[in-house]
Amino acid sequence: MAVAHYVLRITHHGHNIRIVIVRDGGSLLIGIVVGALVLALGFLLWRGARRWWRAWRYGVPIDHSTLLVEYGRRMTGAPDRQALAQLLTAELPRVLQVERAALLLPEGHHLVAVDGNDLYLPVSHAAARWVASGGEAQSTSRGRLHELIRQGPADLDWTRVWAPLMRGVDLRGLWLLGQREGNFLYSPEDLSWLTAIGRQAAVVLDAIHYAEQERRAASEIRALYQQVVETREMERGRLSRELHDGVLQDLCAVTRDLKALEAQQGESEAPFADLVIRSGEAVSALRAICHDLRPPLLQHDLAVALKALVEELDVRSSAPVYLQVSAEELGLSDDVALAVFRITQEALRNAIRHADASEIAVRLTQYPDRLRLTVTDDGRGIAGGVEPARFVAQGHYGLAGMRERATMIGGKLDVQTAVDYGTVVILELPRV
Length: 432
Description:
disordered N terminus, Beta-Lactamase, 20% strand, alpha+beta, 5-stranded mixed sheet, 3 domains
């Protein structure tokens, strides 16, 4: 076997030291393997030491990506600011093992804590401007932010991290986090994750703000509509009383006088007979108008008023109209009873006019937790769906009015239809 000699000459105090290194193929391979093992062992020792050092400094590692997905989804579903604050000041701090947290949102010229305590900070405060300018979560353990907080309000001394809720360049709020349990510090990965959470929270805050604006606008429109409906019902009642107590009574008196004249003149006087018939028809028509303006039977019971309505419309309709009531004492207020009556009235009129049905049925059913009204026909159905906006655009406000009346009394109206299979109008009214 060929042997290679390497000579290393070292001179020390005039003496020569000669070292001979003998290399062969097998020894080289062993050296490479030993070297690789030493390097691997060193790398493992370094990683272990680094992991121990991070655990000693930052605590148990957190799976940031999983938490970002989970809490991002939960924040997106937050219905209001209080729900978002609960996530940011209670649930997430519990995961991070943070002893205290607060969410400050703009209110006038201050950032005010959502949980109602006295914690607040001026929007123009140097610390708020400093954090917002960076746009990222920052630790207060040292540096300029630490000095700014030391110079600021004493009730902010507990904070260890400030995370801005940024929407572009606009500050939507500040998320303050205190000391972690075990006196662990926040790692750079923690700060990056808190920055991402803060930005997503800012987006959610904007969505909540717009939703609140829409709810306020809808509430104002609904209140205006309710006022219009109440005013219209009051006017209907006034007209009904005026017609009943004035014109109708005068017309009834004229009818009686005509009948008396007819009796005096005898049967040969046909004009009186015709006048009696016409005046009687006018009395009936006027009574129907008064009943339509303000159903008098509603003062007694909704079921009685519905029965009278069905009987009246059954006479006018080419299709028979049935009523089934499965309810005892309803105990509804006047406003609720009137709304249910008007919804039934409108649904029946639509079915009689447009459905071309062979049968129309009204059912009023009382359950322990709700009152259910259904108006069903087996007619032609409604082609193109039942979106109220489509009918409003065509100048038909019946369906939209029924939905608004249902909303006013805390109920829900649903319309189910299929072409050639008919339509069913369902009103669900929760019982308190």
